[in-house]
Amino acid sequence: MAPAAEISIPNTTISTTSPPYTIYNISLRLPLRSFSIQKRYTDFQNLHSQLTGQTGNAPPATLPSKSWFTRTVNSSSLTEDRRKALEVYLRTLDECDDAQWRKTSAWRTFLNLPSSISSDGKASSLHSTLTGPTGGGAQISDPTIWLDFHRDLKAQLHDARLHLTSRDQASTPQKQHESSASAKSCLVRAGSTITALEKGLENISGGKSGWGAKSLGEGEARRRKDLIANARKEKEGLENLLNNMAMKSKLDSAVSSMKEKDSLIGAKKPRSGRVLGKETSETRELDNQGVLQLQKQKMADQDFDVDELRKIVARQKELGVAINNELEVQNDMIRMVDEDADR
Which stretches within the chain are classed as H helix? Predict the structure, then answer.
């Protein structure tokens, strides 16, 4: 049985609208899967009414009463009391033995849960239905939840590597295909998780983590960027390995088919002489005598080029000797000037 989910409201945020209102950040956390959503008090009121209307029974928990004289945006104590009461409300519904309220579309819509949630509706069933940020419909906005997703990413890459190892050791094409499909599925999920981590890190580093949440320092943000870069590099390496394995399988299959064909009709004798396909544009239209004549012409051209190179080198030698003679004359003239200066 999968471990139960932990539903909590760790903090609140004040909206930037006019007039402002209090936003309650709801966190659904599992050992390797977490996400968060944001709701206001009126959303809880609507949930309570819809649960009552869809089941015909009042939920086993009551909402905190609405204050007509004091607003939560102006009172931190009222905000904290209401946050705790709403957290108790959600946990009561989630941990109740009677699952009729958790089976309703209102409950799934409120928590952004997929419609394929199992019929028992218990908290443990969330573990099989939540598949990342897409399951919760919200981006990562908490540093701790970000680390949860990074642990999940490492597990996905580890599973992909294990599947690739199993594929390399598989003895039948069917097992190879199953291992390849499992590895590819893990790599696809890893790619989605990397994208979610990048967006989540932008939110956290940009100060969008919400009131009461921990902010990241510059060093920690840089470290997490390095973690994402290393994970992406590992994912790309595993994808290349998977593609190489698939290509090798195709080549092995082609070679095996050719061997079977040769064993049935007999292997062809290797032909001697010129090989079609290895000819150049110069030799393709020539017969053997023409190829020989072409080779002699190429050798004559090379001899001519060597002779021209010899002339160039000789000319360079003559220039070097002339420069040396001129330098000797210049040295003599300088020496005579020095002697006249000494007089």
Answer: 41-55, 76-95, 105-110, 126-129, 133-136, 143-169, 173-205, 218-265, 288-342
- Main-chain dihedrals φ then ψ at residue 13, nearest 5 degrees: -140, 150
Buried b (16+ CB within 10 A) or exposed e, 164-200: bebbeeeeeeeebeebbebbbebbebbbebbebbeeb
* pLDDT tens for the 343 residues of the chain, in order: 334 467 889 899 999 888 899 999 998 876 556 778 899 999 999 999 999 998 888 899 889 888 777 788 888 889 999 999 999 999 999 888 888 888 888 888 888 765 544 434 444 444 444 444 444 445 676 777 788 788 888 988 999 999 989 888 888 888 888 888 998 999 998 998 899 888 888 877 765 544 444 567 888 888 999 999 999 999 999 999 888 888 887 777 777 777 777 677 765 555 556 665 567 777 777 788 888 888 898 899 999 999 999 999 999 999 999 999 999 999 999 989 988 888 7
Q: Which residues pair with 23 in a beta bridge?
A: 13
* Cα radius of gyration (the chain): 39
CB 194 within 8 A of CB 153: yes
From the CB of residue 26, how many other CB atoms can be counted at a distance below 10 Å? 24
| Model confidence, pTM | 0.44
CA dist 240 and 129 (Å) reads 30
Q: Please, what's the b/e burial string for 311-327 (b: 16 or more CB within 10 A of its CB; e: otherwise)?
A: eeeeeeeeeeeeeeeee
Whether the Cβ atoms of residue 118 and residue 128 lie closer than 8 Å to each other:
yes
